[in-house]
Each structure stands twice: as C-alpha cells, then as structure tokens.
Amino acid sequence: MAKKNIKRGLFITFEGFEGSGKTTQIKLLAAFLKKNKFRILLLREPGSTKISEKIRKVLLDKRNNLLCGESELLLYLAARAQLVKERIIPALNKGRIVLCDRFHDATLAYQGFGLGLDRKLIDG
C-alpha cells in the first residue's frame, strides 16, 4: 500500500464491549498505517487530553457509584468536546488519520441503552 496524499484527515473509531479486542485491533491498524508512512494519531475516549484524562478518572472511579446517568453523560460529553477541539480537529486539518478507541457509539450503547437515557438527550 503506497502512501496516499490525504488532504483531509480520516476519523476512524473502534467500538465494542469490554474485552472485544478494540485495543488490540486499533494497535494493529496503527502499526500497519505507520509502517506504510501514514501520519496517524491514536486516541482513546474518554481521555487523550489533560482535562479528558481527569474526567476519565472520575468516570471510572468505582467510588462514584451515586453519579446519576445525566451527570455521567455530561461528563463523557465534556471529555469528548475537549478531545475534539484540542486533538481531533487539528489532526484532521493536518490530513492525519485519527484512530479513536471508542466515541459516540459507546455513549449511545452505555448511557442510552445501558442507562436508559433518551437518545435525543445523547444526540443533543
């Protein structure tokens, strides 16, 4: 595969439940793309920025078991907004391929179907 001259970047997300192999697959694709001289950015959600990593710690802390579904959703969306503005948009504007371990589909699955939040609330 020869390197293509990408003017606009590509955004690829990996979605799936815990242990389904997302992290393994994203690392394999990243290695393949790097080997073929593509400029990539590997991210995880929530996370991948200083602020988003702090939010991730709050979300994944088992002691925060009283966090209501709406608050959980808003924290995920806050982390995502920071990630999009700080990392994703600049990388896409530079023609990079952005690989992200989870994104909107995970929110729909976990906060929508898992917690029963209204899809209109999730989609904004």
Please, could you describe this protein's structure?
It is a single chain. This protein is α/β, with parallel strands linked by helices and 124 residues long. It is built from 5 helices and 3 strands, in the order βαβααβαα. It has helices at residues 22-35, 50-60, 69-93, 104-114, 119-123, and strands at 10-14, 40-44, 97-101. The chain has a 3-stranded parallel β-sheet with strand order 1-3-2, with helices on both faces. Helix 2 (50-60) packs antiparallel against helix 3 (69-93). It is globular, with a radius of gyration of 16 Å. The termini are far apart. The model has no long low-confidence stretch (mean pLDDT 94).
List the helices and strands and how they pair.
Layout: E1 10-14, H1 22-35, E2 40-44, H2 50-60, H3 69-93, E3 97-101, H4 104-114, H5 119-123
Parallel strand pairs: 1-3, 2-3
What is the overall silhouette? globular
Total strand count, please? 3
Please state the CA-atom Rg, rounded to the nearest Å: 16 Å
Largest sheet: 3 strands, parallel
Quaternary class? single chain
Mean pLDDT: 94
Question: Which structural category do the helix and sheet elements fall into?
Answer: alpha/beta
Separation, N- and C-terminal Cα atoms: 39 Å
Give the spatial strand order of the biggest sheet: 1-3-2
Helix content: 40-55%
Unreliable spans are none
H/E topology pattern: EHEHHEHH
**What is the tally of helical segments?**
5
Strand content: 5-15%
